[in-house]
């Protein structure tokens, strides 16, 4: 900047340097202030209230209750059930459904004609662009008692049923696959376009079948994208609320009540804010565990390659 | 160099401005001090009924004429019953969002008083002669354990059995049908099922969807007919493990599993209570419904679905006890109050508004239009009220035998557990014993030591 600061090592120089660092940090300050006020603040408040008996009604003030909320959660049958539903929902709709379907679509589109590719991606992305609540409503109407699916089944002389009522967790999982596949498809399309054609051609020349090429060449080459994609969709799916709330409300009788819905019910319908935030923390923890697993997988990847 | 300094200065100013905007808050919305003031009134608005909106709009005009410079801001919360309470509580938590007058259900008021949301009205009520006109049970409805009054009731209600005479005639039952036991109810429902397919024979509310209606119009109407209760007033303890509780659940199970009631999915729809009274009863799609005294409000000229023929078609009967034991009929009562939140900016004007809204003339209009059972003696005697609706006499006649809910601070949470238990039974998710055991567990964790085992005599 100027020659005045050359006196390195002297007290004045140190002072000037730290002053300069401070001034240089200034542009970041507004962002830091915003982050502290609107991100760190609520998170700390949430952590604090998870250890209290804060309630929306029935008692004023909040007392510190230690781990009582967590103890209550881990001994409650409903909590266990909603954890299982959450894992089922995540596994079926994200890890298996969106992931596999997204990869399949990306692979098929690679060999499809320009027109097919444009039409398919428009349709798939359309599902993704729809707001969560609209998608939830569409599926509720499609699967409901007088819905289109039952209309089709009736036309084919097959027995009809209210899918939202008989298989609620499966119904919301399918809706989530339908809605979320576009994301995986886009990630995989991008990753596949990076795979050099020459390697696949070389494998073909060596006599590898289509399936062999897929498992030995293509998938290993996009492994990193798969891990990243899995992590993103897992975290997204763990916290899905609007879709399930619109379709089933977590019912009937809790049969599609994943953790976010259970936390909402406890905090806002049963007024137990403290318990509800404790459940939210548990959800955060589960998300953290998944992320660590995927991150480790990524790192192992690096050390072996 | 110079221009840089200006940049830093500008940045510093920006940071300061941001911090001020974050920390300072916007102050409270209503102007105070000067002559102009605003009173925000919050009530529930859901479904097609606009009775309260129309009523309050009239009172608003009257108030603003009498108090120039003060505006009444009617701010309904458009939400189902459960969500209404939650949103109201969230609003009252902060001075910035708190309304000045709130419409509070008596079942929740103790809980909200305990949370410190409401202002005691005793000081303001000194010298308010109208209070002498209120009946004693109503005065007690919004009196907390500290002996102070926090809300002014605007009416009460009772509950009974509504039935469609045409449908019951098809099933071979008389127009003055009066069930004596639960079995009478069930056999009538079975007869309707056989005679009129496509009709819901017997509607009993259950599950979390309809909220408090499932507890009060549904399960508690059954439980209080078994001789058991939710709460033992003598020992001040909540009752768990009673036989009556299981019998009540068993009745629900019978109704829903035999197809005598709505499908479980219909019953769990948050809008179900409105659908029944506004749509299905007038269309003759429900034969018998255990419901509130106010149901016919929808069929008045001022209601959401005017149905002049209802007086010929619909009959009423008292809800029977389980085996016809004395006193032979059951009813539960609740009611709503107008209250002032502690965070109100304008409690004095709010109190003036409450006085106006509950005075004789306005309360008479309200009780007639909303089909409420009056809590003011002068309104109850007024011929305009007694002649307004043929069922007024019947439902007022249930007042001597009616029971008020144990509306203590934990009641809302106990009520939630009733809804969970009834939902588990009507969906077949759990058996009667399992659902009752789960309820007992939850009540023990909610009420702590204040529980007692077994049936109270």
TL;DR?
Chain A is mostly helical and 305 residues long. Chain A has helices at residues 11-25, 29-50, 68-75, 77-111, 114-129, 132-143, 148-155, 163-166, 168-193, 197-205, 210-221, 223-238, 242-247, 259-269, 273-304.
Describe the structure.
The complex is a heterodimer of chains A (305) and B (457). Chain A is mainly α. Chain A is 76% helix and 0% strand. Chain A is built from 15 helices and no strands. The model of chain A is unreliable at 1-8 (pLDDT under 50). Chain B has 2 domains: 37-157 and 334-388, Periplasmic binding protein-like II (D-Maltodextrin-Binding Protein, domain 2, 3-Layer(aba) Sandwich), CATH 3.40.190.10; 159-330 and 406-453, 3-Layer(aba) Sandwich (D-Maltodextrin-Binding Protein, domain 2), CATH 3.40.190.10. Chain B contains 20 helices and 16 strands. Chain B has helices spanning 2-24, 51-66, 81-93, 106-114, 122-125, 136-141, 165-170, 182-195, 212-223, 243-257, 264-268, 272-280, 310-313, 347-357, 360-369, 377-381, 383-386, 390-396, 411-426, 432-447, and strands at residues 37-42, 70-74, 101-105, 151-156, 159-164, 200-203, 231-232, 237-240, 286-292, 314-317, 319-320, 329-330, 332-333, 335-339, 403-404, 451-453. In chain B, a hairpin with an 8-residue loop joins strand 11 and strand 12. In chain B, helix 9 (212-223) crosses helix 10. Chain B is globular, with a radius of gyration of 25 Å. Residues 9-34 of chain B have low confidence and may be disordered.
